[in-house]
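Table 4 source record.
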Amino acid sequence: MADLQTLDVYDARAADYAQSFGMDHGKDPSLRDFIAALPKRARVLDLGCGPGSWAVAMAQAGLSVDAVDASAGMVEQAQQHQGITVWQARFDQIEAEAIYDGIWANFSLLHAPRDEMPGHLARLKRALKPGGLLHIGLKQGQGEARDSLGRFYTYYTVPELTGLLRAIGLEPTAIRHGADKGLDGTVAPWFTLTAHD
């Protein structure tokens, strides 16, 4: 289930988040590589789309984009953009089967409790077409905690996540590391990776 305190923060700060992080992401190297690895006019799912800026960049690149977020405030922000299909849904409500060429789960699954992650990953694998591509971004570390705004986070190491992915038949590739300032104003280390079957 979604963490209600986290959703309350995103609902209350959706406009602030869109202003701070809603820039053009078309030049992001992870997103460029993700798009380049997909077929032309591929159908993709932006899981935890936030204000929709990543989804817009994918749509502008010619992809067919479904965008979902558990926060009503974020969905409202994302729905202001043209060219993407947006609706409200939690991670455990993804029921698609073999319809997506790619899934972009960029710093969204980090809000799920650790014991729920295997189920979420299995649902995403089921939603992918054979040979489909999954992108995941997470904060790096160990344990679970809330930030100063009250948002819940689960932290991962690369070996931990790659183990979870391999357990469901996905092979991780293209790992990137970095550190950025978040909505709470603190700088945190992160990693992204892509995986395919």
